[in-house]
Amino acid sequence: MSAEPLPDDDQGLALHHITVRFGGLLALDDVSLRVAPGRIVGIIGPNGAGKTTLFNVICGFVGPQSGALTLDGKAFRPKPHHLTRRGIARTLQGVGQFSGMTVLENVLVGARSRKPEADAWAALERCGVAEHAGALPGSLPYAKRKRVELARALAAKPRILMLDEPAGGLDADEIRWLAELIQGAQTTVLLVEHHMELVMSVCDEILVLDFGKPIALGTPGEIRTNDKVAEAYLGAAA
Ligand SMILES: Nc1ncnc2c1ncn2[C@@H]1O[C@H](COP(=O)(O)OP(=O)(O)OP(=O)(O)O)[C@@H](O)[C@H]1O
Ligand SMILES: [Mg+2]
User: Fold this and answer.
1) Signal peptide span per the entry (predicted)?
2) What are the residue ranges spanned by the domains of the chain?
């Protein structure tokens, strides 16, 4: 499948006709998406729909069999070790901290500027976990560890913040806090999430995947009333 390059003045990240196969399994089937600067874009779909795989393509962990990515209109071939330099930071599904390091050390890993300590502390404070800076992440409750994971990503001051199921395992209060953080992030956000209320309340735009196929793209209002989306979720529940 050929990919149309974007004109040079097209800012932001774009995926053009991305296809990923794992053996006989089509994990992503001709997925295209444009993420304009400052937008909050949700990616939803039943389990196994290909959401994390899409993130892995953007981060360079998975190479697509066909299709291309562009960043600001130019070819973008992501490599995991170049991501922070390109302004892309990601949290992992679940909690993925280095267990032998303190909270502060974990967050410092994310920082990339000339003043990493200051960025790390600012991120810890923004996420309300500065008081735990000297603790080991494993000693903290799950919700706090999720906040540390967010702080690590924010410490990079990313232009694109990628969140993979940040609400997983959180209670209603924590999810409200998370919604405010996302909306106040003042950066582009890509959000993979099963918690529909969160997705519908914070996203400007939502892409729906089902068995790797993009079945809908629209505003929360459009997605909420889309028949194909309802069918995909009913099918998954059955
Ligand atoms: N490295 C891999 N090798 C083989 N199959 C894989 C690999 N990664 C993902 N898959 C398969 O690709 C499909 C899409 O997986 P993916 O993890 O992207 O789904 P998801 O939408 O993130 O699901 P969930 O909501 O459960 O996190 C699944 O069928 C999964 O088993
Ligand atoms: Mg996933």
Assistant:
1) none
2) 97-145
